[in-house]
Amino acid sequence: MVVRVGVVGASGYTGGELLRLLANHPGVEVTYVTSREYVGKPVHHVHYNLRGYYRGLKFTEFRVDELSNKADVVFLALPHGVSVNYVPKILEVGIKVIDLSADFRLKNPEMYEFWYGFKHPYPDLLSKAVYGLPEIHRDELRGASLVASPGCNSTAVILSLLPIVKSGIADLSRVIADVKVGSSEGGAKPTPGSHHPEREGAVRPYEADGHRHAAEVEQEVSRLVNNSVKVSIIPHAVSSIRGVLTSTHLWLTKDVDDVELMRYYVQTFSKEPFIRFVKTVPPGYPDPKYVVGSNYVDVSYAVERRLGRLTSFAALDNLVKGAAGQAIQAFNIVVGFEETLGLKYPPLKP
Ligand SMILES: NC(=O)c1ccc[n+]([C@@H]2O[C@H](COP(=O)([O-])OP(=O)(O)OC[C@H]3O[C@@H](n4cnc5c(N)ncnc54)[C@H](OP(=O)(O)O)[C@@H]3O)[C@@H](O)[C@H]2O)c1
Questions:
Q1: CA distance 282 to 103
Q2: What local confidence, expressed as pLDDT, does residue 193 receive?
Q3: With respect to CATH, is domain 153-318 assigned 3.30.360.10?
Q4: Could you tell me the strand order of the sheet in which 203-205 lies?
Q5: Who contacts 29 (Cβ-Cβ below 8 Å, separation ≥6)?
Q6: Is the CB of 323 under 6 A from ligand 1?
Q7: 43 Cβ inside 6 Å of ligand 1
Q8: Which CATH number does 3-128 carry?
Q9: Which one of 45, 46, 67, 78 would you pick to mutate in the ligand 1 pocket, going by the greatest count of ligand atoms within 8 A of its CB?
C-alpha cells in the first residue's frame, strides 16, 4: 500500500525534515507541498539537502479542493494559530491530519487563552484530537483522523517522567524541568535573538517565568496519575542547531535503591522502539549530540541521596523525535503501517 501525503508549510524546518524523512519511506508518496513564499519553486530551491529527490514536485499555495484530489493524509507544519483555521476544512473532505502545531494538543479550550493568547474557535475538535505521543497513546492513534503532534520540549519532559509517574516514588506537585534547546526550535525565520551572531555561543534562559509546553506536560502526566501534576519548564537557548536535553528534577517520597530505579526505567521503556536507557552505558547520561538525525530518545537518571533528589534526563533531536519523526511514527500507527517504518536508522557521529 502507498499512502499519498501532503505537507503544508513544507518550506519551513519541520516541513523540510518531514520531506527528508519521507524521501525514503517505502509506504509514502509525497504529492503535495505548500508554501506562500516559494510558489512554483521546486523543493530543492529551499531544501538544498534534498537535491536529487522529489524531482518535479513544486511548492503551491494551499487549497483544500486541490489537496483533496492529491492526498490521503496531510501533515501541517504551520505556526500555531494558523493550523487551527485549516483543520476543520481538511477533515470535512475526509483527509486525515497530523498537525505539528500546538493548536489541538490541549483538551481544555481555556488553556489556549491562558498559554497561547487566543480563544480556540473549534473547542469540540479538541476532544477528538489524539495527542500524538505513541509511548502513551498508541492504541488511540490507530485509525485516528486528527493527531496533535506533541511539542519537542514536552516530548522530552513527558518521556523523562514516565518511569517515575508509573512507580509513584516522587512528589509530582512541584516538578522542575531545566531544558537546553538548539536554535532550530525557533523555526526558519530569523528573529533578533536567533540571528547567528546573537545565538552562537549563547547559554540563555528564556520564558523562564512559564513556558507554554508545561500545559501539555501537565495535561498528559496528570491524566496518567489521575491527579493534578504541576511542572515548571525553564528553557535555555544554547548554540547547537538541533537537540533538546531535559534535566527534570523531583524529590523522592520513597526510599528506592538503584536496582529498583533501574527496574522502573527498563520496564517502562524496554518495548519502546525509539527509547534507549543509557544509565549503564558510559558515560551514563544522554547527550543530544548522539541522537541528532534520528528518532531516538536517550534517557537516564541520577540521585543525590543526601537530599533525596532525583533527576531524570532525556535527549532528543527536536526536528526528528521532537517533530517530524514523531509525526511520522504516529502516522505509521494511524494508517496501519509498522510503527518504525522509514524511521529506523542510527544517529550521526561525530
Ligand atoms: N522547530 C521545531 O523544533 C519544532 C518542533 C516541534 C513542533 N514545532 C511546531 O511545528 C510548526 C512549524 O514549525 P517550524 O519550526 O517548521 O516553523 P517554520 O520553519 O517557521 O515554518 C513554518 C512554515 O509555515 C508556513 N507559514 C508560515 N505562516 C503561514 C501562514 N500564515 N499561512 C500559511 N503558511 C504559513 C511557512 O512558509 P511560507 O511563509 O512560505 O508560507 C513555512 O513553510 C510550529 O507550529 C512549531 O511550533 C516545531
A1: 40
A2: 86
A3: yes
A4: 203-205, 231-238, 175-181, 244-251, 309-316, 297-304, 275-277
A5: 2, 3, 4, 5
A6: yes
A7: no
A8: 3.40.50.720
A9: 78
pTM for the whole structure? 0.98
C-alpha of residue 321 to centroid of ligand 1, in Å: 17
| Span from the CA of 79 to the centroid of ligand 1 (angstroms) | 4
Give 15's DSSP letter: H
| Residue located nearest, by CA, to atom 6 of ligand 1 | 323
Q: Is residue 132 within 6 Å of ligand 1 at its C-beta?
A: no
Which pLDDT score, from 0 to 100, does residue 273 have?
A: 98
Residue pair 67/60 in contact by the 8 Å Cβ criterion: no
Domain chopping of the chain, boundaries: 3-128, 153-318
Say if residue 109 is preceded by a cis peptide, omega within 30 of 0: no
Set of cell numbers at residue 318: 527536536
Q: What is the phi/psi pair of residue 179, to 5°?
A: -120, 130
Strands of 130-131's sheet, edge to edge?
A: 59-60, 28-34, 3-8, 73-76, 96-99, 146-148, 130-131
- pLDDT-based confidence at 166, cuts 50/70/90? confident
Q: How far apart are CA 31 and CA 70, in angstroms?
A: 6
Length of the chain, in residues: 350
Ordered alpha helix ranges (H), the chain = 13-22, 64-70, 83-92, 110-111, 123-126, 134-141, 152-167, 196-199, 213-225, 258-269, 325-335
